[in-house]
């Protein structure tokens, strides 16, 4: 049986290779061995490296001869490491990754077979864009799309048992120059934030910085279940989540899974997974059990945002690849099991300058403290003002089961700052005579603030956007999402407020205010307008939903509502103004994401109807047959059937009828004409989702009624507890 198969497996043994001394290789010996970064290659001259970096800094293209030098070096490296093919790797708007492979194999002038990657092959590819969702942005005759090499992210080798392929990170744009991917706007948002933040630092008296970049570390939550159960659940295969399933008696009530002993098979997976990530230059650092049974987490050391975004994509695919070797499947869906803790991606986000200063790290001088507080105020203002676009950026069918499902960060965008910062802000706002160096509340002139924040490690796990000591943690991001879009919107929102803050500071300082005074006025101004977006309480509570409504905060509960933001010029103008998206690119994304939502739900509905017919009802009928036999037999024997048999029979019959009718109606609904996508999506999110929730409830009741021997689908018990 499936259960026997799952429980009799042993942890997979894999061995880290030995070094020349016959010792098991240490991580420092294999870290990054599958990556190629032109900056560290010994086969590229220092002049070439310098020229390329300079071109990158100045935002212009690199010279052909420099690209040729890199192409030659990377080909030698990749081919000598066993690569036969290379591919342009990109992130289309579906949120996943795409790749088109070509062989290094080529002919030289004499017609002899050689290995080769030309500069132009490295720099540009031309996948057929018409096969990717384009949101109606282009007619098929202009379906050409280009992938262009992103030099800021390292190339890497992906290995299967049969060989290796060189992956070249690229951006994907249409023939007409529209971005068709997640990376391009992310890069634009990073480039926009840099100068605005640098200028802010200067105005805040920190004149040493010449550039600022975004830093990010994405914690990844996931479920692992045995492969046998996965393939026996069509809903998992088709939709990534169980569309129904009765809860087991013990789920997560005992709270004993979080940080508990990692099961052997899972630990074996984690070890191999970490090994692979380290070889790929992905700084995986932390691994542990998460809240729900069968749920786990990995977290890397933070890096530059664009690299972190690429890395997270590689994390997701590598995770799947390695888990399968261990006969397990990774579930990245935000809510694979109703009623059980969902999975998110905590996007840890901050900014650093070229001297290594973290803009969200309070310092030891009064000015650095004020600069820090002003930075926090700017971010909170951005969060408040651009709450809807940020909510849009984390929307998706999967995340709808998490956000606002009263056991996850709500769909209300708010910030958690913790008591210390909150108190300081209140003091600044309320006490007009408050001076940066005065002793009321706390002395900002010492490193007291840094200490206080360090000690003040109170964690609020219920906030969608929490300050955690030296960074913000955007927790409402879904576990399956590409982090590129949420980061793009966040960067753009913060950029916009930085720009506004800069002109405010310039005006105030021009009027004779000192740097400190102007920062103080800035904090006061922004915290007054954005105070209502600060919430330090329990974000999962019903009280907060009511309180947020009283405060006038938006609460876009579902994906269709959230996506509508992209049809509201006022809401998205900051994205256009700061050069992140053209208006048409926003329209493209709106169409694609809305259509994607509809398709995902339709697939869920159809799968659900199928499973009801193929599994649930037949199981119920088997049970009825059994009951019929008993009831008949007893009658023949002259014994009246007991209440139980009759009751069970009637109950199963009634439930089957009920779910059958609902399924038939839903099926009919799917066949109707739905030309207005927004309306249809809204109908799905409200009416139809309510129907399928009812249907799932009936299926669960049947699952509880029907004896195990007749119930053929793996249960939560199997998927969550057996390995
Ligand atoms: P916790 O969430 O338990 O506090 P850590 O403090 O180690 O754990 O941080 C979690 C994640 O935040 C890690 O991926 C870490 O690298 C990342 N992180 C830490 N500092 C920064 C920063 N300045 N910018 C972006 N990410 C950061
Ligand atoms: Mg964390």
UniProtKB/TrEMBL annotation:
Polar residues: bias regions: 1-9
Domain GS beta-grasp residues, every copy: 84-177
Region (Disordered): 1-18
Residue ranges constituting the GS catalytic domain according to the UniProt record: 182-616
InterPro entries recorded: Gln-synt_C, Gln_synt_N, Gln_synth/guanido_kin_cat_dom, Gln_synth_cat_dom, Gln_synth_gly_rich_site, GS_Type-3, GSIII_N
Top-rank lineage group of the source organism: Bacteria
Similarity-based family: Belongs to the glutamine synthetase family.
Name of protein: Glutamine synthetase III
